[in-house]
Design brief:
Elements (H helix, E strand, L loop, with lengths): L3 H10 L5 H19 L1 H17 L12 H29 L9 H6 L6 H12 L2 H11 L5 H8 L3 H15 L5 H14 L7
Helix pairs in contact: 2-3, 2-4, 3-4, 4-8, 7-9, 8-9
InterPro entries: RNA_pol_sigma-70-like, RNA_pol_sigma-70_dom, RNA_pol_sigma70_r2, RNA_pol_sigma70_r4_t2, RNA_pol_sigma_r2, RNA_pol_sigma_r3/r4-like, WH-like_DNA-bd_sf
Family: Belongs to the sigma-70 factor family. ECF subfamily.
Pfam family, one: Sigma70_r4_2
């Protein structure tokens, strides 16, 4: 089976070969976009993501076998543009109504729609309060299913930056001393084999 790098090389001579990349990754990219934008906007964003990927396929790092992190990086930027457009529309609607139907922070809340399970819904206000960079990093991990190295590739940052952002997210989403923080760190210590048998 060909790697995505092989397909990108073939697509230089035969552009139709790029359809294989779409077939392999469209489902995961669409799932990621649905969670970020909702079902209506996800379809348009998916098309835009793959159009950009096709046009920029020569910029894909051929050292990577899978294009999934690269595609999710593009999808992250497309989703950000869609949310910014939505926020502009909300501001225009609000202005045309003379502000009669606004709520405090309504534009920011409209720009950050979370269509997720009940546990995530409870965290939505705190996730929305994260910086855009931290939120993108978290969502690529949680919804995109990317490794730390793949997130770094998708966002064009060092792996250490990904670790720092996720550590900051962990602290912001789980207040110090909370059960969630303790369980997270115990889980990390267990993964690393640092927690003794007496714990």
């Amino acid at each position: 089976m060909s790697t995505d790098s092989d397909i990108f090389r073939r697509s230089e001579r035969t552009p139709q070969a790029f359809a294989e990349v779409f077939d392999r990754h469209a489902t995961s990219v669409e799932s990621f976009l649905r969670r970020r934008l909702g079902p209506d906007a996800a379809e348009d964003a998916l098309s835009e993501t793959f159009l950009i990927a096709f046009r920029r396929r020569d910029s894909f790092d051929r050292a990577w076998d899978s294009a999934r992190p690269w595609l999710l990086g593009i999808a992250t930027r497309v989703a950000a543009r869609h949310r910014a457009t939505e926020a502009r529309h909300w501001r225009a609607i609000t202005a045309s109504m003379g502000g009669e139907h606004t709520t405090e922070g309504g534009i920011d809340e409209a720009g950050v729609r979370m269509d997720a399970a009940a546990a995530i819904a409870a965290l939505a206000p705190r996730i929305a309060a994260l910086s855009a960079r931290d939120r993108e990093t978290l969502l690529l991990l949680a919804w995109g299913g990317l490794s730390h190295e793949e997130i770094a590739q998708a966002l064009g940052v060092p792996v250490g930056t990904v670790w720092s952002r996720l550590n900051r997210v962990r602290r912001k989403l789980a207040p110090p001393g909370s059960q969630l923080t303790r369980l997270t760190w115990i889980g990390k210590e267990l993964e690393d084999g640092r927690l003794g048998a007496g714990a």
